[in-house]
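Format is sequence with structure; example below:
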Amino acid sequence: MFLADGWDEFRVLDAGGGQKLERWKDVTLLRPDPQAVWPMEPREADAVYVRSDTGGGHWEFHRELPAKWTIRYRDLTFAVRPTGFKHTGLFPEQAVNWDWMRGRLARWREENGRAPRVLNLFAYTGGASVACAAAGAEVVHVDAAKGMVSWAKENAALSGLSDAFIRYIVDDCVKFVRRELRRGNRYDGIVMDPPSYGRGPTGELWKIEEGLYPLVSDCVSLISETPAFFLINSYTTGLAASVLDDVLRVALPKGNVSAAAVALPIERGRLVLPCGASGRWTPKDA
């Protein structure tokens, strides 16, 4: 298990009954979480996301909250806010992967004497992009949603990385990778967080069960001769960590692979909240 237990300004206070109670700095949120199948006593929160019987849902606010606020993780700062789809713009469990990538990149830079190049696909609000840039990497950040890319730029600025080398691209990730192959570009690190289902800027259809391996296979051809890592994240229900392990072993047979659930500690008892899965690949000599 990859456990994200390094937070100071974020906590999962409790979970159960299909919900999780979180503290984001000084704001408490109660959100749905299908993994929390055990019981939980009723808990109050500053805002509660209520699901609709017809799909989606809405936030009920029990006190006035700022439109958005910031939260820190180590030397990084992110803007968060309750969005219309129960999310906040940040997946705190990914902090365990931010730390891992930063460690890999710091070692790689020392060994190779230059800034590593990292490709971040389905990059959302840029948690991984900011973390890699803070480690001295040159980052190419690709996401199909213009609003998410703008949010990522804000997070970089909040983290003091406005002048860092982060190239922001609004594009369909599959098409971008194919263009990079034709251009002959190469990357020392690749991270991707593909959705279960989605559409690109001009309606391109994505289904993870059909598109994941072909995309990974294409990305393998983008890896430099001195790679640092390849990281796949998945939040798709039913896609086990062992699937990511298999995908990486087939696509990249020469290397070290580890895959596991990504999780957050819960303050009640000794519980942990599973939050998807990650598969990590490094070269044999890593």
The chain has two domains: 2-80, 92-282. Residues 18 and 35 are 7 Å apart (CA to CA). The chain has a mean pLDDT of 95. The domain at 2-80 is CATH 2.60.40.1180 (Immunoglobulin-like).
